[in-house]
Request: fold
Amino acid sequence: MPKLQEMMTIVSQREVASNIFEMVLKGELVEEMDLPGQFLHLAVPNANMLLRRPISISSWDKVAKTCTILYRIGDETSGTYDISKLQTGAKIDVMGPLGNGFPVDEVVSTDKILIVGGGIGVPPLYELAKQLEEKNCQMTILLGFASEKVKILEKEFAELKNVSLKIATDDGSYGTKGHVGMLMEEVDFEVDALYTCGAPAMLKAVAKKYDQLERLYISMESRMACGIGACYACVEHDKEDENHALKVCEDGPVFLGKQLLL
Ligand code: FAD
Ligand code: FES
Reply:
């Protein structure tokens, strides 16, 4: 039976941008990681906080049995703040990998891929881009951040093959000034598949512009409790059947664009 929960070991933990931490975890759960876009459900090391925190897997290394997550911390009362205080060598209670990720099997080398990420929605797109690199397809990657201070993973994306990377910041402190939707306006090729993760307004803009695209994949965020489909805390509306609730934790977090009522 696949492993779903483990006390993983923290190999490293560091602040990589303002209030954004990168944590590398080691353990057997890495064996189960398959699709980019899946997430881990982390227990907070604080007995007063019972709910786990869902955090996307940003990348993994099966040989080293490690995976990397990037997460933004809240204020001193938040669970993510407590998680950021864990030191190298400490253990953390992890469930996962959970949810349905971005499909990559169907991608062929002639596909023109558009990846659109915003803020703390960017991390799962990195493992996706790594896997698409293996397919030798052309990738245009558009990333938006509030400012240069919270820009993440630029170097990692830029080092991949066949990538055209563009960055926008809301305040103009780096790259194009404005939101990532402005970069989308400059896309001048026919997109075969689009993958996106980020703030709701950005996802809505992507879904509107590419509403006719069959292979539009949107990763959704929602507040979660159980993380495994048992509590209905995380539901979204199904565009094709309004009486049907889509559970972000189990049916998602990645959905086909045509499924979602954004
Ligand atoms: P607290 O205020 O202590 O949280 C209180 C409660 O609200 C907790 O139960 C918490 O889980 C919930 N909550 C608060 N904000 C959110 C939110 N935006 N989404 C979901 N639950 C919330 N964040 C990252 O920084 N990096 C990631 O890679 C990442 N991936 C995610 C993947 C998925 C599938 C989902 C659903 C969310 C993801 N998030 C990610 C958002 C992250 O889970 C929340 O920011 C985090 O749970 C907030 O917890 P906290 O301890 O900082 O805040
Ligand atoms: Fe419980 Fe999704 S979080 S059903």
Summary: DSSP finds five helices and 16 strands in the chain.
